[in-house]
TrEMBL record:
The lineage of its organism: Bacteria, Bacillati, Bacillota, Bacilli, Bacillales. Gene3D superfamilies: Aspartate Aminotransferase, domain 1, Type I PLP-dependent aspartate aminotransferase-like (Major domain). InterPro entries: Aminotransferase_I/II_large, CobD, PyrdxlP-dep_Trfase, PyrdxlP-dep_Trfase_major, PyrdxlP-dep_Trfase_small. It holds the Pfam family Aminotran_1_2. This is threonine-phosphate decarboxylase. It comes from Neobacillus citreus. It is an enzyme of class 4 (lyase). Keywords: Cobalamin biosynthesis, Lyase, Pyridoxal phosphate.
Length: 362
């Protein structure tokens, strides 16, 4: 049986798995990072702050936490910096250790892994493509009375879809009565059109809301590790005590305010994504491909006319130098779709040309 890698962005592993020889690089559509990043000023800024690595970071990260709080328009006691979104997920899972959780699939794998790690009993809710990946809110709310927490991803990885505000409000209100927390991972929130804002302002109305963030995807800095949690101060205090000391390194501590200030980088990305995704989706429609109703920089794809041939489509794209993300380890997808990133116009055109070839030959 094929040993698929757990995450995207591993072209060398895939080359080995598929016995692809030679040095030619694959076009990587498997990782959902911003093709514009990192911001051009970052390399010099890393050098500028080089000296900070000779000191321990200030343990409360007061300056960088204050910059996150100001950026989000909330008090600093509602913010906890983390070593990427991954640490945020595991810290929050620890808060619910040995409890009961709900996870709506298909979604990011790490919620389940973190729950298992902390002996949390998990019930899965499967959401299908037939409904446009819309949450079955009625079914979920009925389960809330026996759950401590529900993990949601908004916008969701791997579908790119966004849970409707009214559905989320309903769950938070029911959760307020049943003592159920709702964790919403907003790792891709900066890619959304401005008409779909972050849930940060909701924190003041819903003490059972916990928000997770990551700067990884927007700024293309998976190696730096920057994330944060936003929640009621009582939760933040507990999580702070659980966190290992100096989890955030001093370079990152110094750079967070500057990254957050660079709104022009985020805005430029949003404008590009809006244009580019419109073009890609129009072309996919005319080529007869299904794509998930994504609002961000990746989508699920399969051939509408031959939905059972996704495995062959994956190999066909790979033979033509294009790496996509398999979906064998996303619950409910079973490899039936490919997750594909929106890349630069030049790269997207190459992908579309290969899909056209697939259509001509199939
Ligand atoms: C939905 C989601 N949340 C969190 C993360 C973790 O990001 P980080 O690199 O900040 O740990 C990812 C990474 O793939 C993700 O897709």
């Amino acid at each position: 049986m094929m040993k698929w890698p757990n995450h995207g962005g591993q072209p060398e592993t895939i080359k080995k798995l598929f016995h692809i020889e030679g040095d030619k690089a694959l076009l990587d559509f498997s990782a959902n990072l911003n093709p514009f990043g990192p911001p051009s000023w970052l390399q010099e800024a890393l050098q500028e702050h080089y000296k900070t690595i000779t000191r321990y970071p200030e343990p409360t990260y007061s300056k960088s936490s204050a910059s996150v709080a100001a950026h989000e328009g909330i008090d600093q006691d509602k913010v906890l910096l983390t070593n990427g979104g991954a640490e945020a997920i595991f810290l929050v899972a620890k808060f619910f250790e040995k409890g009961k959780a709900l996870i709506a699939h298909p979604t990011f794998l790490e919620y389940e892994r973190a729950c298992h790690h902390y002996h949390i009993d998990v019930e899965d809710i499967l959401v299908g493509h037939e409904s446009g990946f819309t949450l079955p809110v009625e079914l979920i709310r009925q389960k809330f009375f026996e759950k401590d927490v529900m993990f949601l991803c908004r916008p969701n990885n791997p579908t790119g879809t966004v849970i409707a505000e009214e559905d989320l409000k309903l769950l938070l209100e029911v959760g307020g009565k049943t003592g159920t927390y709702v964790v919403v991972d907003e790792a891709f929130v900066d890619f959304l059109p401005t008409s779909i804002p972050t849930l940060t302002p909701w924190l003041s109305s819903y003490p059972n809301l916990i928000l997770l963030r990551s700067l990884t995807k927007m700024y293309t800095i998976p190696g730096l590790r920057i994330g944060f949690i936003m929640a009621h101060p009582t939760i933040i205090n507990v999580l702070k005590n659980e966190q290992i000391p100096w989890s955030i390194n001093s370079l990152v501590d110094a750079l967070i305010p500057r990254l957050l200030e660079d709104r022009s980088f985020v805005n430029k990305t949003r404008v590009w994504l809006h244009e580019e995704s419109r073009n890609v989706f129009k072309r996919l429609t005319s080529l007869g491909f299904y794509f998930s109703p994504s609002q961000v920089n990746f989508y699920l794809l399969r051939d509408k006319e031959q939905p059972q041939r996704t495995g062959e489509l994956y190999s066909f794209l790979l033979e033509h130098g294009i790496l996509t993300r398999h979906t064998h380890n996303f619950k409910g997808l079973n490899g039936d779709f490919l997750r594909i990133a929106i890349r630069s116009n030049f790269e997207n055109e190459q992908l579309l040309a290969v899909l056209q070839k697939w259509r001509n030959e199939s």
